[in-house]
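Comment thread on ticket #2218

A.B. wrote:
> Attaching the input chain for the structure job we discussed in standup.
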Amino acid sequence: MKEVFLYLYITFLGAIIGSFLNVVAYRVPREESIVTPPSHCPHCQKRLQMLDLIPVLSWLLLKGRCRYCQNPIFWQYPLVEAVTAGVWVLVYWRYGWSGETLVGLLFVSFLIPLTVIDWHEWILPDRLTYPLIITTLLMRIWIREEPFWWSLAGAALGAGILWFWLGSAPISLARKGWGSATSS
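C.D. wrote:
> Ran it. Output below, let me know if you need it in another format.
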């Protein structure tokens, strides 16, 4: 029974973090603060109250609409909250209560907003990728399952594939490579 409550707690905590990750995914590409101003409706700018911020549940109870202006609330918000909750449960299920769990939760908490930002903006902001690189290196130091040279070989292989792919993209697409901010 204690285990059930622990999983429910992790699910709820993951959903709360997912709500914050929505803020990160929305504000980081716009170079806005992730702390201030408090959460608000993007249409009417009305500050959201505590009842409006309950992950997934608020969206369902409000039928996907702002309490104040009745404009639709993007379905991405409850989806990110639910996915984050589910991934947090999976990380805990895989690693139990350990240092690996904390590192894994931090790792996926960077990947989720990066995925959302990439989906919408086609960018991966340095403000998130650099801390993710540091987190990955710390995870590699902390979790030593394979010899270190395997990590180096994997990094070299990944960099080589990326280098080849980016180098061949202009040829295969018969136009500018992907990710060019100035391409039209």
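A.B. wrote:
> Thanks. Noting for the ticket: The chain has six helices and no strands.
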